[in-house]
Amino acid sequence: MKRKVCESLFAVTLALTVAVTNIPVTAFATEINQSARQEQMTESVQTENQGQQSHSLQENHGAQNETNSENGQNSTDNPAGAEQNSGEGDNPAGTDLKKDNQFEGNNFQKVDNQENSGVAEEISRQQNTDDNQQNAQVSEQAAMLSSDETQWNWHKGEITQNELKKLLGDSWPYAGTYRWSKDRENWNKTSAYGNPVYTFDTGTYYFQKETVTWTGIQWNDIGTKEIHAYYNMEINIYGSSEGVVYNSENLAVPLNSTFQVYDNKYKFTVKNIENYEIKVTATGGSQGERKLTPDANGMYEVIFDDDVTVKVEYIATNYVNVKIGQTENAEVYINDTLIENEDTRVNLNENFQIKIIPQKGYAIEGVTVDQASVSDLSFEKYAASFSWYSGETNQATITISPKVVKEILALKENVIVSYHKGMNVERLKNNIFNTVVNKENTIPNNISIDDVEIQYQSGLGWQELDYKPIVGVFAHEFGNNDTEKIRISYKGNSQYAPLEAETTVSISDERIETQVVIQEDITIQYNTEDVMKQELLQYITVQDKDGNTLPVDKSELTLSYNRIVGQQELTVSYAGDDDYKDSVATATITITKGDATVSVNSQKITYGESFEAPIFTASPEEAKAIGLIVGITASGEKYASIDLSEVTVNDIAGTDIPIYGKKSVQEVMRSLGMTSIKVGQLPELFEKIQGIIGSESDIAGVINGIEKVINILEKIVPGINDVTIHIGELPTEAGVYTAAGVTVNSNYNTAIGVGTLVIAQKKTNAKLSFNQNIENKHNRLTAAEAESFDFGGHIEVDGNAVGDTPGIRTNFVGKTATGEIVSGTEAFKEEGEYIETISIIGGNYLAIPIVRTYTIGEAKNTIQFEKKIVYASYDGNEHGMTAYVYNEDGDKLGEAALEYQNILQTSTNVSPVENSSAPIDAGMYRVVAIYDNAESEVGTLVITKAVAQGTVTVGNAETTYGQKLNLNSVIIQTKNIAQRDIAAIQDTIACAGSDEAIGSHAITVTVPESVSRNYLRTIKVNKGTHTIISKEVTITADSCKAQYGNTFPEFTYQISGVSDKENLGDISVVKREDGNHVGTYTLDVQVANQNSNYKYNLESGTLTIKKRAITVAIDKKQKVKGQKDPVLTYTVEGDGLVEGDSLGIYLSRKSGEKVGLYDIYMDTSNLNKDYELASEPSGKDKFEIVENKAGLTNQKNDSGKSKTNGTQVKSVKKQPGTVWDRIKTGDNNKPVGYFIAVLISLAAIIMIISARFQRKK
Hints:
The chain is mainly beta. The chain folds into eleven domains: 2-228, no CATH class; 239-317; 318-406, no CATH class; 417-508, no CATH class; 514-592, Immunoglobulin-like; 597-760, no CATH class; 766-856, no CATH class; 862-944, Immunoglobulin-like; and more. Strands 1, 3, 4, 6, 7, 9, 11, 12 and 14 form a nine-stranded mixed beta sheet that branches. A six-stranded mixed beta sheet has the order 37-43-42-39-40-41. It has a five-stranded mixed beta sheet with strand order 18-15-24-20-21, with no helix packed on it. It is flat.
């Protein structure tokens, strides 16, 4: 019930709204329909997913060419029928309104007949509404069509129905119905079902929308729109890199890329190249592939009904024919062009490029040209490339034959691969490769082990041969199974592609059985381990089971035996390799004592230096030598030392001894309580070591050797046996020493060696010095100072005193103040003069004796010049002398005061006066040094004149005419001139000459006498030059404008760069070119009687002649239907025509012979270039055709002011960019009515929403 009330209220509201606003009732039909559908969906509790087909308009990505389509191309066919969809499926855009809506046209009253009788009366009253009021419903669409888009550009002119409706202002579910026409006579209409695709020709279309009113269906204009259909076009050039394609405007066309053509045809030309023919073909569209032929002007034309690709081929006329041999499995390119036929052409005298690309699984093994192999083939990504010279013979034939082979990696089946645990993985790879790969049937047949990768199936995928699986992983190591699945992968290269193949092999240890053979009764001499091994290997061979010696490396055999003198058991083991199995053998050998030597590194060093190690060397090293050093120091003391820290008990025994074996002899001595030992006790020490070794080794020979050494040393240094040995030391005191070495390894025959060690006294950087120096020049001491003075001396090395130096001696000799001669080893301290001498005898140092004199008495002061006579050369600086005052101890007390007097005048202007300041000028000066309590001293200072040639060079200067030269800015350069003299010379700069005209004159200086007197030679002056250059002046012609046909303005100019313009000459401006038509002309500046002091820059201006503005009014014309058209004329207004000119305007009218008004068109394409239209004709003047009711004849031509072209045109092209027309919608001046209608509509909407809300509850 509530729903019916709501619908009744809504119907009343609708009727009132229609009555007040004149809005057709169909404007509300969609809302009712949608509301009904939504309530039906709610009641059925179903969600119906009506898919919306959304197709975006194809975008125009290319430049838009000028549209050449014509109006009036009416098609009798129905373009809307192209590519129609069936309408099946759930497509809201194609839903029939009769199914979904509860009304259709006048059947709207069937919604609720009983409760809406008032609505029916109101509707009946509206049936006579004016047509303009009925059109108000399309105002929204009209507003849409006034958008900034001037045209629609569609690929092939195609668009889907939904996209078209969206452009026309419709929205989902696109329920509106539309139609369109180019001539308003033949219409195409949107489909009620599906989403078909429509095809539009280029042109201007009228669009209308269907409106349902109470009186029936009405079609209302919503505007016009230009539609441009375009096609994609691509042009490619082959055969010449110089080829070019030009469009109809003679502009080069982009090649190898797609561009858009906004017409159903496209014209172009192709550049002709000497010695080439041109073949042009097109593909695409209903015509398929076709050859294009140029017209008489060389113009090609493509007709479009689909996208087109054009192929331009340049075919050489002077050529060599290239014939390609069998190439079933490869493609051949010549100069980057695929050769699809067996023959092709190349230019004469040309190096052409050949590239052969094999198909997958094939390779190029070689190429022959005229049966000769090509040697310089290059490969990249399996393609073979080379260059070939075509030759000079026209139409000769070159045959290129590539050898194309199928790549094969051939593997043998059921083969055995030799393998054993621990085999080198590279050897294993070689075994597999050499056993499995069938090289005879493999291509490439030069495949090697380095070209492949070999893997096995581990149970966990393919793995490398040395793969070690993790414990617990379901995988096995290679060789654990009797058979293994192998995969060999060829890596490939630039010529051959990668390959791989699989096979299964059996695993077996196929190595050769071996035996080790040792000769009997082997006796060798003890030596180092390596030497003994090499000697034993001479008696050992590895043989196969047949007794053949095998080529094994004996150095890899393992020898095990007790390496000590006596009979020993020898075990020899061969570990085998990847070719041979392992084996072992034993035998008894005899080892005799080895020979050894001891060398002593005799040396001489200076005290304080160290001996170079080692001093004792045994050969072989394991024979171990100990060294005993004895001698007498420079002080006369006996010395002995031995180092036993590096010799162990094992070294002496020649084998491993338990407990004590690794201890040094020195450690054994401490354990035996022998902390101190004399030379004669050494044999006793080694006898105790024999007791420690026991029967494991006999060291009697070692003890005997030590006794021999002691006997030798006793003869050299008698009494040495009783000297205590310095254990682990070397001699450090100056002296001469004997070094004796003896080997102690019992496996060697004992050897002895003797040498000499010398430590010389140090004399380098060693000197004697006094304990205290007398700190004055005269070595004078007072009696009191002498009492505390430290007389005597000491040794210094490198400036550092050495303490406790033995052998230093001090002696004194002299005469006392009383005349007594005295001498002794103690210093004399009474008044007198004495000599002290220091010397050294023996010890570690050798130094020259030193001597000094000293005086005991009182001191005196003296003055002393640093230099008695000083010479200097004049350089502009002060030159002085220095004198110091000393006391008799040599202490400097300070400087003496000096007075200078010029005793040799160099100038009559200088008087001989004394001065305490150091002099500067040349001359001879007497210098007196004065100090209190000292006698004055006299010295001499001589300052000579400067000898070097002095030079003054005056710089050049440049000024512009009229500019004053600043002399202070002139730079002078000097050579051999004192700095103090430069300023005096600078002050004398003068310029000789006038600044009144351009030219040059000298700049000079004068050397003052105060300067020249200090120079021996006359100072040379180099004059400078003052140059006056022309002043630049710029005269610029003023640019101006004039209208065609009017008098030119007066030509003027501007001057810059000078203030005085009167002396520039006679200036004028002239026009360079003849003529008075529209364009730009150059204005030149000319100057007569130019002033030579100026440099003229003459800059041109321009005269611009603009077009003459006119206004053209088209004369109205009329004729009687069926009669001939009168001549179309026009009238020129505005600035008018220049006498003798013609405008070049042509008139035509819209075609048609029915009664009515026709537009008159004005063609200005040939308008005189000196004119322009100030405004377009108003278009109000029409050509009228009237009925012949009263015997009317054609209208005569107007007055002589009108112009005519005397021709008529049947049709006129519509220009692109046509603005869409706004449609008049009737009288809308009803603001109060609209306001009331809005309020009523809002109330109705609220009631509908409320009703739905209550129903949901």
